[in-house]
Amino acid sequence: MRHELCTAETFAPLIPHKARDYHVRIVLPATETAVRRGLASLKQSLAPFQYSRDELGALEIVLAETLNNIVEHAYANGPAGNIEICLNHASDGLWCTVIDDGAMMPDGEVPLGRRAKLNCEVKDLPEGGFGWFLIRELAHDLVYERREDRNYLCFRIAIGELHEPRRDQ
Amino acid sequence: MKLTHQDFNGVRVACVEENRIDAACAIQFKDEMRAISDTGPERIVLDLGRVEFLDSSGLGAVVAALKAVRNGQSLELAALHPTVKRVFHLTRMDTVFTIHDSVVIALEGIADAS
Fold first, then answer.
1. pLDDT tens digits along A63-115
2. Are the CB atoms for B65 and B34 separated by under 8 Å?
3. Interface membership of A116 toward B (CB under 8 Å)
């Protein structure tokens, strides 16, 4: 299991530059309980950035869905490995990179995550399939890259005091 | 995952005594809710006042609990925290469930209707 510290050189080339640096980085084993602890620890580590409770809520939803997918799918058929999470506070939000050594995403692409159809009988309501939909609703600039048997997923959560580039007029 | 419940005049209020319903406890939640609705009256109110976070597995488990109620029995939700409310809203599950601002309001609702 490779888990060297990520640097600009080891990141996959599609990952945006803003996501290559980080203020907070953790590595956790891919289990449901470790994900729960990891999320709590990440939120604590972000305290200096003074995100609001709602902002941290949005971040937690996206990270929880991303990490649970890795536990349930990427490492489904094999020994559970590790998950590395790097968070970078920038002027346009919090850039998040999540790295794992599990299986590739289906067809090498991020699932579309369509909104579940609810105009049906109660007995036919979906009990799953909300994860990617929630990620796509709350995350921006989603990039996925498979490189040397590793998955790199990167996205931006538009939280914190955003500094828009100034426009004329 | 700990759930407690209390009955008031034909309403059973089930309270989640944990601060999250997530992948690590969703199945347990589903099983415990099943036991609560199986032996409960016609109306079940799920008090989520202590639940600060719910992920898609947790949402799926709440939907499963709705699907598990008997014919003629209802499952309503009360006291959703903002992040929990957001998950229900984004997925539009807030259109499937009756959601009350608080347990007190949920219980008053039946008093008004009678």
1. 999 999 999 999 998 887 999 999 999 999 999 999 999 999 999 999 998 88
2. yes
3. yes
Q: What residues in B contact A134, CB-CB < 8 Å?
A: 56, 87, 90-91
State the first-to-last Cα distance of chain A, in angstroms, to the nearest integer.
53
Label the pairing between strands B53-54 and A93-100.
Answer: unpaired
Count H helices and E strands in chain B, helices first: 4, 7
Residue A33, chain B, CB below 8 Å: the answer is yes
* Local structure of B64: helix, strand or coil: helix
Model ipTM?
Answer: 0.92
Separation of alpha carbons B21 and A161, rounded Å? 30
- In this structure, is the dihedral angle defined by the CA atoms of residues A157, B55, A115 and A112, taken in order, positive or negative? positive
Q: Does A9 touch chain B (CB under 8 A)?
A: no
Q: Confirm if A135 and B90 have CB atoms less than 8 A apart.
A: no
Q: Please choose, from the candidates A127, A132, A153, A72, the residue with its C-alpha nearest in 3D space to the C-alpha of residue B90.
A: A132
Task: For residue A34, give both structure tokens.
Answer: 């470790």
CB pairs under 8 A between A and B: 80
Collapsed DSSP state (helix, strand, coil) of residue B67: helix
Question: What does pTM read for this prediction?
Answer: 0.91
